[in-house]
Amino acid sequence: MRAIASLTLAFGLVSIPVKLYSATESSAAIRFKLMSRGGARLRQHYVADTAEPAEAGELAEPADPAEPEVQVPTVPARTAARAQADVAAPARPPARQLDLDDAPPPVIVEREDIVKGYEFEKGRFVLFTPAELKALQEGARDSIDIVAFIPAGAVEPVYYDKAYLLAPDKRAEKTYSLLLAALQRSGRCALAKWAWRGKQYVVEVRPGEGGMVLQQLLYADEVRSPAALDIRLVQVGDAELGLALKLIEQGAQDRYDPTQFVDEEKQRILAAVEKKIAGRKIVAPEQREPAAGQVIDLMQALRASLRQPQASKPPRKAVAAKGAKVRKAR
Fold first, then answer.
1. What is this structure's pTM?
2. What average pLDDT does this structure show over 197-223?
3. Fewer CB atoms near the end CB (10 Å): N or C, the chain?
4. How many domains is the chain built from?
5. Beta-ladder partners of 146
């Protein structure tokens, strides 16, 4: 595993050289590419709606404020002829017909000529050059500065963003192990500030299984509160609450075991891909309407839930086999 960066974790007057690693693997996701019907891969172009774009640093306004901004893709002559035939066809008329002969030709903008703009009013932008944007970015620091220690679990999980793993650099095992042991013994986590790739983050450094985890946290204005939904809570009876507690106790587990769960949706897609490779036709399963979930008698439903047999956990060997299949599919 390759380290993303070499950093310094500041613990009081103690500096701990650490290596930063990604804690998740995005390559596990299944991605489909955009292609033509003939199987050719597509390339993306950026198209300007005017032949004379404004210079960077000036205010940019659309040529006709009444017309919405439209991004026109570039198409080959054969596809354009097919598009003209589709527009002229009487069946299934489009919501807005375009006269391709009168439309201005699209202007393809090369990547080196692209700048970024901020829309401060509807349809009005102020443009920035790459040098100006770089000057606005937060200066990257190679240190993670601890500012406070809070109880473990004090941060609501809704504030969690991307997670990273922290490992000690050369000759830093002693100080790394000291901070890890202190966090574990005190039952606390560290709050720190960290500038990374043009943005400043508030992060939580917490003890994990066999090391420390750096967890990026969202800011307060990035998280929505349930209070904004105006949820109406009602009083529940003691008998109903007692049955609900028994139901929770019946399915209680001491810890979370991630190997107990397998991405069934991913396995289904991979199986369909294998059928497609083998030349088989994929038939969509019949969609069934879900049964109505209205509960008439809450007590009766809780008692029925308690009587319902619990699904047995998959044996460890079976779980390991499933995990091996998934790793092989990756």
1. 0.61
2. 92
3. N
4. 2
5. 192
